[in-house]
Amino acid sequence: MARSRRSKSPGAEVKDDPRLANSTSDYVFAVTMFVVAAVIPWYFELPLAFDVNSPDFNPLIFVPVVFAGIGALVLARTGLSGIRARKFGSATLFPASAQLGHPYRPTVRTQTDLETTGDFVFLLKCIRKVRSSDDFEGKSSDRTVWKSTESSPAGSRSSIGVSVIFHIPSGLPRSQSVGKSADSNSVRWVLTVTAPVRGVNFRQDFTVTVR
Asked: Cβ(122)–Cβ(158) under 8 Å?
């Protein structure tokens, strides 16, 4: 049975874990990696000898190990994300926009009260995507321009709302998105909210528009 969702207020962002929507493709990818790992030794008739001193040793035997490792990592990541998304449901951020040089008071609400064992931690980051000048392939990477952390005490009723206050300096870059073909120098602001909970910890990422 599908979860009921909160009505979305103007200026709010309702956020589910994006990996829950992609869990099927992630599981298929993980299974594919395991299948490839199993087929390689059979297809190339590789002996299962990992002793480098053995006359039957073939370095290619480590190739399926790499594929199996990738499959295991993807499977573990997807399983953890699915558990987190199903356990906590959707979360709402309000407001989802801020202004440079002004205090920003984000409020996060969850569908049910979280029984946390520690404080809620809010991490606000300004991230610029940069492209290396000597990279002919056009690869880009994220660079943190500014970040700040605030916390809210454990025991806060997250279904009503957990809030903190950030003081954003005026000299920082505003949110800026560009086309996929030229994604260098784009700027995004991300708010990450975490809280320790028995079992799987709460974590949610929100995109904040900063003007």
From this structure: no
Token pair recorded at residue 179: 């086309």
CA-closest candidate to residue 203, choices 101, 95, 34, 81: 81
Residue 17 confidence (pLDDT): 47
What confidence tens digit (pLDDT) does each residue in 38-90 have? 999 888 888 888 888 888 888 888 999 999 999 999 888 777 767 666 666 77
Beta bridge partner(s), residue 193: 122, 204
- Residue 2 confidence class, pLDDT cut points 50, 70, 90: very low
- The structure tokens listed for 181 are 């073909």
Q: 12 vs 125, 186, 190, 207, CA distance in Å?
A: 19, 23, 14, 11
Measured between alpha carbons, how far is residue 89 from residues 18, 55, 72, 209 in Å? 12, 55, 25, 23
CA distances 142 to 154, 191, 195, Å, are 32, 15, 25
Question: Which H helix or E strand runs over 167?
Answer: strand 166-167
Contact present, 95 and 208 (Cβ < 8 Å): no
CA distance 5 to 88: 12
Tell me the pLDDT band of 91, cut-offs 50, 70 and 90.
confident
Q: Of 209, 211, 200, nearest to 17 (Cα)?
A: 200
